[in-house]
């Protein structure tokens, strides 16, 4: 039986992202459900954009059965809170125009390893709460789970009127193959993302993977979203052409440094660090706009950039611990698969300390984009 050489067997290029990558499930101390407040805060900042786009599409299309998808829904309180916001916004418009509210078909999508069970377990209480708020009347609401990668088809043709995706599209479908030479060795040694010491081929490989993934995402949704339907996409990004800044990429730089400390302490092998990369890319405004134009199925109606919070807000609390717990909830599955879960506690203690040290020196400004796209 043929066996891969050792380097290829441990190389993350062979990691099946669809099978391995997921937010930490359940409701434990390190779960995404308990450590997604930063995402909730950021989503709340752009809530007005989501609601405006949703109400506009409902008024324009007036569907009797309203098809809605949340792509990259994850698990935890944020999943159901957006459904509640959507229901209330559409019901408010229906009341205003004196028309009965539609039935709601809500499709929750994420990778198959997502903790869908915890979402489904919370549905009975969610339905009860909705009924109570409406004095015994209950909205006509049908929620279903659709596991699978959104980089490809998920739903039948023309079944969706509104697509929502928050903090998902900066995750790539795979580790970019261009990060490895012919022998399967990383060309980005000592780094887990684009860094100042990365050769130019590294940012090119990440950018190409983003182009392939985002255009496939748009092409797939173009068949599932009805004409006139709309998408609200919230994703992390970067301000200009430089990939290295004190924004989202800097958090990966600090994680690289934290892993390097564990290498120096003998807790992990240098080869392990050299062969680890993240399936992540922060696109610029120009890169996103160019892909939307190139694919051609959607019109970019609106695009806004936000910074999550001020430096003063970050320094005034234990921001490092908050960021560390958030990153751990997101990356734990990949890191423990590659390095082993025995390093997790010490890694994220070092990481939290580094973030706190850096935020006092100079602000770290992770930015996000909110996009509204209309199906042509």
Automatic annotation (TrEMBL):
InterPro entries in UniProt: MeTrfase_7, MeTrfase_capping, SAM-dependent_MTases_sf
Metal-binding keyword on record: yes
Xref: Gene3D superfamilies: Methyltransferase, alpha-helical capping domain (1.10.1200.270), Vaccinia Virus protein VP39 (3.40.50.150)
Record keywords, A-Z: Magnesium, Metal-binding, Methyltransferase, Transferase
The protein's name: Jasmonate O-methyltransferase
Database matches in SUPFAM superfamilies: S-adenosyl-L-methionine-dependent methyltransferases
PANTHER family reported for this sequence: S-ADENOSYL-L-METHIONINE:CARBOXYL METHYLTRANSFERASE FAMILY PROTEIN
Coiled-coil parts of chain: none
């Amino acid at each position: 039986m043929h066996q891969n050489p050792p380097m290829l067997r441990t190389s993350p290029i062979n990691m099946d992202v669809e099978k391995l990558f997921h937010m930490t499930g359940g409701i434990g101390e390190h779960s995404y459900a308990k450590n997604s407040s930063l995402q909730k805060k950021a989503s709340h900042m752009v809530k007005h954009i989501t609601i405006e786009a949703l109400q506009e599409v409902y008024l324009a299309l007036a569907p009797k059965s309203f098809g809605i998808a949340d792509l990259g829904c994850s698990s935890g309180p944020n999943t159901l809170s957006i459904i509640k916001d959507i229901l209330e916004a559409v019901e408010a418009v229906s009341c205003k125009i004196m028309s009965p509210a539609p039935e709601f078909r809500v499709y929750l999508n994420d990778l198959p390893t997502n903790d869908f069970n915890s979402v489904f377990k919370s549905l009975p209480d969610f339905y009860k709460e909705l009924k109570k708020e409406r004095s015994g009347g209950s909205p006509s609401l049908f929620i279903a789970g659709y596991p699978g990668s959104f980089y490809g088809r998920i739903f039948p043709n023309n079944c969706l009127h509104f697509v929502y995706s928050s903090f998902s599209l900066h995750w790539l479908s795979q580790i970019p193959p261009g990060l490895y030479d012919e022998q399967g060795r990383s060309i980005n040694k000592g780094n887990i993302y684009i860094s100042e010491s990365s050769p130019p081929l590294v940012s090119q490989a990440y950018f190409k993977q983003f182009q392939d993934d985002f255009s496939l995402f748009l092409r797939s949704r173009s068949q599932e979203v009805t004409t006139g339907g709309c998408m609200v996409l919230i994703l992390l990004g970067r301000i200009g052409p430089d990939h290295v800044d004190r924004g989202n990429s800097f958090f990966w730089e600090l994680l690289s440094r934290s892993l390097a400390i564990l290498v120096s302490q003998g807790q992990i092998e240098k080869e392990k660090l050299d062969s680890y990369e993240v399936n992540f890319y922060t696109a610029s405004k120009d890169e996103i706009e160019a892909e939307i134009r190139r694919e051609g199925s959607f019109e970019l109606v609106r695009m806004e950039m936000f910074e999550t919070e001020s430096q003063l807000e970050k320094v005034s609390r234990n921001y490092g611990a908050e960021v560390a717990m958030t990153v751990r909830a997101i990356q734990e599955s990949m890191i423990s698969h590659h390095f082993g879960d025995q390093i997790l506690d010490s890694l994220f203690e070092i990481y939290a300390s580094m973030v706190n040290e850096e935020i006092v020196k100079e602000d770290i400004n992770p930015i996000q984009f909110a996009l509204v796209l209309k199906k042509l």
